Amino acid sequence: MTTPNLTAAPTATADITAVASGLGGALWLLGAAFLGLLAIYFIGIDQGMVSVFGADLHVHEFVHDGRHFLGFPCH
Q1: Number of other CB atoms surrounding residue 60 within 10 Å
Q2: How far is it, in rounded angstroms, from Cα 66 to Cα 46?
Q3: Comparing C-alpha atoms, which of 31, 53, 32, 33 is closest to residue 42?
Q4: Confidence band (pLDDT; 50, 70, 90) for 10?
Q5: Tell me, what's the pLDDT at 49?
Q6: What is the DSSP string of 2-21?
Q7: Is residue 36 part of a domain?
Q8: Number of domains in the chain
Q9: Rounded to whole angstroms, how far apart are CA atoms 44 and 71?
Q10: What is the pTM of this model?
């Protein structure tokens, strides 16, 4: 009968590539979510009077046809 080796300490190693790829994936996800919310704001919510640009309607007119195509009412 053999006895277990009690002097060897178990080693916990973390794979750095798995950690780095998870962090990279989270950054890509956050970036994509930010750009998606920005696109939804400019296409669906930006209305000139409540615009972040004030009463300027350039952004509204630029996305006007896309807004109607996606079902967002604007007038």
Answers
A1: 19
A2: 13
A3: 53
A4: low
A5: 57
A6: PPP--SSPP-----HHHHHH
A7: yes
A8: 1
A9: 9
A10: 0.57
